[in-house]
Amino acid sequence: VSDPLITFLSDFGREDWFVGVVHGVIHEHFPRAKVIDLTHEIPPGHVAHAAFVLEAAAPDFPPGTIHLAVVDPGVGTDRRALAAAARGQHFVGPDNGLLEWALGDAAHRVHEIRERRYLRSSVSPTFHGRDVFGPVAAHLAAGVRIEQLGPAVHDPERLPPCAPRREGSDLVGQVMFFDRFGNALTNLTWRVLESAFPGVPEGRFEVRVAGRTLRGLTRTYGHSAPGTLVALMGSSGRLEIAQVGGDAAARLGLGAGDAVRVTATEA
Amino acid sequence: VSDPLITFLSDFGREDWFVGVVHGVIHEHFPRAKVIDLTHEIPPGHVAHAAFVLEAAAPDFPPGTIHLAVVDPGVGTDRRALAAAARGQHFVGPDNGLLEWALGDAAHRVHEIRERRYLRSSVSPTFHGRDVFGPVAAHLAAGVRIEQLGPAVHDPERLPPCAPRREGSDLVGQVMFFDRFGNALTNLTWRVLESAFPGVPEGRFEVRVAGRTLRGLTRTYGHSAPGTLVALMGSSGRLEIAQVGGDAAARLGLGAGDAVRVTATEA
Amino acid sequence: VSDPLITFLSDFGREDWFVGVVHGVIHEHFPRAKVIDLTHEIPPGHVAHAAFVLEAAAPDFPPGTIHLAVVDPGVGTDRRALAAAARGQHFVGPDNGLLEWALGDAAHRVHEIRERRYLRSSVSPTFHGRDVFGPVAAHLAAGVRIEQLGPAVHDPERLPPCAPRREGSDLVGQVMFFDRFGNALTNLTWRVLESAFPGVPEGRFEVRVAGRTLRGLTRTYGHSAPGTLVALMGSSGRLEIAQVGGDAAARLGLGAGDAVRVTATEA
């Protein structure tokens, strides 16, 4: 069996040395570690934004992967440090909602990180990525179990619910994230759409967003002429709004939280 | 023999999770993989820009290196997926001109990627970096040969030719790329210059660009006073226009495609 | 014993291929190499800025770590190439002050890099990260000693001194660096403060900056209400000025070199 991968997500940016230092600490504690940067460009302190990225990316990693996530405005206060086992993977980060994807698994287990032996020898009050979470991720990769880290936690912080809702025959979701290409990703997953509109083929969906109506879901970006606005199921299994060869978010003036309404038209 | 390196070039940016996910998939398919990011900051969909980067960087990597390149506005359409062997290295990417550097080798071999066993178990129509190209790069690193991936391709897409031309006693090239320092890299390689002006020493070249005339090629940036405009053979073997300690592109208002004329003066 | 880590710091940015090429060269010379990017976003040519980053980051890495640092406006001129042993680690870079942190160790040893066998087979005049410093870092990781690289150097370039000074009962330091969160890091290390104000508890320090007076040092960011300006000892052991949940540098209009005055108030 090969070692588990460690992913690393933060709001540290890449202009300073913080990301590199955490990589160093992980290798110091577990020299064989394989660390993959998810992104470090989370806007500073935006926990919900980071939680969305983790939810979108984690399912693409193999079972056993350890996700290290550090967006931590409460570092050094009495907010707890957590390690979770959920969905066949591990998650390490502060108790502020960042690990929402793990906690949404009914079978999740969460422990507080307390055992000093798994931390850096000296723990600062301002950089737990280096002193707490990084070392713990390394120890988990080396085989430590989350039960060894500290007591079970039964009341972890959760994010406010953000599920699509029914309104008459419509399903109403919202824009969650804009990717690099200007595509607007929503909280309307394929599972939610199938459950709300069982058996409806892609051509009969109608999507309304920013005063526009898009008819039918397209399969991929390049099937329409450049400039066309399209709705499609993106690679992380969510409905997204895109402009072929362009930036749909800029074109439509979309912002996070904007409503996206879906209906099924008559056959 | 050590494992081949895998380089990774894309237009994914580093704000989203796409780059990390491809790294994860490669390691899942070949745990010993060594993946080196070339850059992910190609402007979205700019195939020619990415092809230039690949041409500039690939020769600096060892024989056997596998170059994974994903700038893929046609993902999910009927554009083919390719793997090429050329110049002693491997290249994996979409059939849209991105692999021009490999195809410029008269002895190149190209195969279409078709065999499902070398792809991700489920292939989406919108993220072939994750589902097709990444897994194939991993399999090539593990020893699979390009012939195993699918049928030979004899008509891959090429970029429009972009070679310097003679105009009387001038050799006329163009600006191809601006690097981080504001240096303007051209398509005038040392080989082209030597062939056009055999035996001419560096001091007798004259370079005209943006209404300026630069006399002689300098050896490196720091040999002239700050602010001086210089022409020199850069580290990837191309004539470049630079400003000592400054940004030549901004100073001269240069854009990609601007003409750069070279002549040899009398001894 | 596991292999030493190699850190890599430069002003190359991540839009071009330079960083990737150096990674490739290191792996070519030492396939087991573990290379950690510190940052490549140093403003082009800003040696002092890079020297500060190296000083802040290096102590967080294990003994034996090799720090590869390339901010090198004098590349190809007669500036020397150096390798240093200091503070239990190695440092490789140009002789322009970039290695100031190593040279500040009274027990440092520095050698000039001269032996061709440890360089790339062909050395360009414009890219010594690829042709000189990268290969040397790889050779050091493989066990080569700095004495084998070339003659000892007794007069390396140093940066202008930048130590805090006493003015009456005040200790006067300056802003050195702004991190991603807008925190302003100073040259007032904990050691300097303890030596200037022995036994003074955190609550009795007073910090004056940009016309403001901050009373007491706080332990971490999250202990005060959002928007509060605070002074605290940051994770690299330096006094920093921060705004809870915000950007202190922007709020106060701070610039590098701005004075930061510290006094101790009566008990």
Structure description:
The structure is a homotrimer of 267-residue chains. Helices cover 20% and strands 29% of the residues of chain A. The first copy, chain A, has helices spanning 18-29, 47-57, 100-103, 128-141, 190-196, 248-252, and strands at residues 5-10, 34-39, 66-70, 81-86, 89-94, 109-112, 165-167, 170-178, 184-189, 205-209, 212-215, 229-233, 238-243, 259-264. In chain A, strands 7, 8, 9, 10, 11, 12, 13 and 14 form an eight-stranded antiparallel β-sheet that branches. In chain A, strands 2-1-3-5-4-6 form a six-stranded mixed β-sheet, sandwiched between helices. Chain A is elongated, with a radius of gyration of 20 Å. Chain A binds chain B through residues 2-3, 5, 7, 14, 34, 36-41, 53, 56-57, 60-62, 65, 179-181, 219-223, 232, 234-235, 245, and chain B through 11-21, 23-25, 27-28, 31, 44-45, 73-77, 79, 124-127, 130.
Largest interface (CB within 8 Å) is between: A-B, 31 and 30 residues
The protein's oligomeric status is: homotrimer
Fraction in beta strands of chain A? 25-35%
Termini separation of chain A comes to 51 Å
Query: Biggest β-sheet of chain A, characterized?
Result: 8 strands, antiparallel
What's this model, at a glance?
Chain A is of the alpha+beta class and 267 residues long.
